Amino acid sequence: MNFMALKQPENSLLGSESDSQRTLYPYVTGTSVAALEYKDGILMAADMGGSYGSTLRYKSVEQMKPFGKHSLLGASGEISDFQEILHYLDELILYDNMWDDGNSLGPKEVHNYLTRVMYNRRNKFNPLWNSLVLGGVKNGNKYLGTVSMIGVNFEDNHVATGFGNHLARPILRQEWHENLSFEDGVKLLEKCMHVLLYRDRSAVNKLQVHIFLYTCRLHLLDKSS
Amino acid sequence: MDLEMNLNAPHSMGTTIIGVTYNGGVVLGADSRTSTGMYVANRASDKITQLTDNVYVCRSGSAADSQIVSDYVRYFLHQHTIQLGQSATSKVAANLIRLLSYNNKNMLETGLIVGGWDKYEGGKIYAIPLGGTLIEQPFAIGGSGSSYLYGFFDQAWKEGMTKDEAEQLVVKAVSLAIARDGASGGVVRTVIINSEGVTRNFYPGDKLQLWHEELEPQNSLLDLLNSSNSEPMNI
User: Which Pfam families would you find in this protein's record (chain B) (predicted)?
Assistant: First the structure.
């Protein structure tokens, strides 16, 4: 009876919340994702926690998923919206494969697609409540980019979402350099996740790390000759 | 957009629901209290609802919302079974619930736990909280009473329990939650689903273990006075 009144903020400018189809606030959320480019590809890390308000409710949530041949998507924010984005992407990849033309969507193209999706949802006041990190390798070219829930997007050598923006990016700016080895890349990412565990209340002490390697063909041919 | 207030105050839902996998199937459990504000509208409700022969769902949150979602999913699953030519899997049931919960997240206020057994994956439990996230887990807890059970399950849950161990764990857990959560109460109902079929059990309040500060049930004060004890206040 009184529950409905509690849920809606008093905001007459936007009309009664129950009228329109809008996502107002997240329920089950994932926290920071951090990623960097290293010598042979992309490293991306996130913890496996799904928070429900202040409760650390789920401890085996996958915040990152590879898809297509070339890409890796990580997301913080509302988990149900991330699951929905994965569904959109599966469809995208499917239609791309159906052309059967030997070409496949690379991470740069997917990043652009996601930017359009996020920005258009924001314009309709019905955002997908996520900050996305899109990384991958196509034809030997590494790519790492990010899109926020309001459509802010850019490409960089190292990115982070959520609390990671405040805690991980300064560390990455200081210590990242071109041609990081795999070990150094992992150590750097672990340092970021370490700090996040100390200072982010919604962090849990269980990590998932994805390693995206150069597609080997061109590389191996060079080495053998 | 007032993020701070909403992120830190998830809505409480009057119920305790649990789903647990064991080696051979699943056990679902729930309390039986439905409240309207402070009044107990139904003290013997059945919150474990059938979707198909082999898949059941525990409902929490708004009674109306959870009932209508279950009804739609039961309807879709029935059609799916006819088209498929065999029983639906628990994964399909869970995904149908997710679709409805996610696509209507602005209007619905219900958290559900789907549990079932199918020949491909055996016993599975899927949690679908507010918002429509789908998450497969070895066990799941939900409803307002679940707040009191996170620590309990962290300690008491073990992989590879037998059917009886699993059911006892569920009954104990719901009973503990009822002891502390005002929005949970009544009896403990369980549903066990495995390859052999479905078994429903019922545990009335007086058959449950006593917890801290709880007293042995008595029929009347008169029994106490007439018994050998001369000090009825000191029990």
Answer: Proteasome (PF00227)
